[in-house]
Amino acid sequence: MIDNNLKEPNLKINIAGVEFKNPIITASGCYGFGKEYNELYDINLLGGISTKGLTLEPRQGNVGVRVAETNMGMLNCVGLQNPGAEGFIKDEMPFLEKLNTVIIANCAGKTEEDYVALLEKIETTKVDMIELNISCPNVKTGMAFGVLPSEVERMTRLAKKATKKPLMIKLTPNVANIIDNAKAAEQGGADAISLVNTLLGLSIDLKTRRPILGNNFGGLSGPAIKPVALRMVAQCFKAVKIPIVGMGGIQSTQDVLEFMIAGARAVQIGTANFYDPFICKTIANELTTYLKNSKIEDINEIVGTLVYN
To answer: What is the pLDDT of residue 142?
Structure first.
């Protein structure tokens, strides 16, 4: 039973000077721009929203099958379908800027010039924070900007020059050593890091012996990747001093707490929204119950409290 005489626990967290009412943030690509979910419940209950991945110009995304279900997860190769910077500012920002929750613009691009131009446009909006998606193709090297630590640091420095908004770098798990990349983001001037993005995966149609996804490979998300994401968050927490936002397979209050114990200041919830559109609201409410039952006055007390064997 909950002792109703207990002090109401504090769920507020702070990342790079931005205050969130609670640590629950919706993950980019899994929540659109929030309009549809706001028809189901008041999304002002959330700590924040990370927008659909934005690019400088509008994108239709990849052709063919773009989503495939897997055991304990899903693969996607949507291809960053989005309205582009101008469309976002004109059609989405009027709704977002009226919300009483933190708005994080997830920004992507194919070239350095794309990133800079996009950030300069977002700089004119009331977006609270930038989340730089550097898992996108680098046309010069043929690999994602976020694979090599040297590229992570360079792109971070480039972005810091293009925006005065707090900058969070979203790290891909498809690297040799996540610690090196986290350190590179910190050295480049990142105000925070978020991890992990999706793992690269493949699903095959036995009848045709062809990949199910139109783009052949896709990003694996969902509960299947949680142990990997949790491990990487714990490793990065010991390696860097900047705040960490954890994500990857979170579908319950317990998952959120595990990520925070591992070192995440906040979390992003993505794939779970597809099968339970109320999941973020449910978890945000359950966190208060957990803290009261555990007699924890401030949720920040549990961050990074993992005890190793």
So the answer is: 59
Answer yes or no: are the C-beta atoms of 245 and 194 closer than 8 Å: yes
User: Catalytic residue at 30?
Assistant: no
**pLDDT value of position 141:** 67
For residue 5, the model assigns a pLDDT of 60
Closest to 273 measured CA to CA, from 44, 48, 27: 27
**CA separation for the pair 41, 192 (Å, rounded):** 29
Angstrom distance (rounded) from CA 8 to CA 289 = 10
What does the pLDDT read at residue 305?
A: 98
Indicate the DSSP class of residue 274.
H
Q: Enumerate residues 6+ apart whose C-beta is below 8 A from 270.
A: 26, 27, 28, 29, 30, 31, 221, 247, 250
Number of CB atoms found within 10 A of residue 94's CB: 9
* Residue tagged active-site, from 30, 77, 107, 136: 136
**Boundaries of every domain in the chain:** 13-302
pTM of the model: 0.96
CATH number of 13-302: 3.40.50.2000, 2.60.40.1120, 1.10.472.80, 3.20.20.70? 3.20.20.70
Q: Residue 105 forms beta bridges with which residues?
A: 130
Residue 200: strand, helix, or coil: strand
DSSP 298: B
* Helix then strand then coil, % of the chain, to nearest 5: 35, 20, 45
Q: What is the DSSP letter of 285?
A: H
Q: Given this model, what pLDDT does residue 213 score? A: 96
Grouped pLDDT means (10 residues each) for the chain, 309 residues: 69 98 97 98 98 96 95 94 98 98 97 96 98 80 84 97 98 96 98 97 97 95 98 98 98 98 98 97 97 96 98
Q: Which of 31, 30, 13 shows the shortest CA–CA distance to 21?
A: 13
Other residues' Cβ atoms within 10 Å of the Cβ of residue 5: 5
135: tokens are: 């898992």
- Alpha helices (H) in 134-252, listed in sequence order: 149-162, 178-187, 226-239
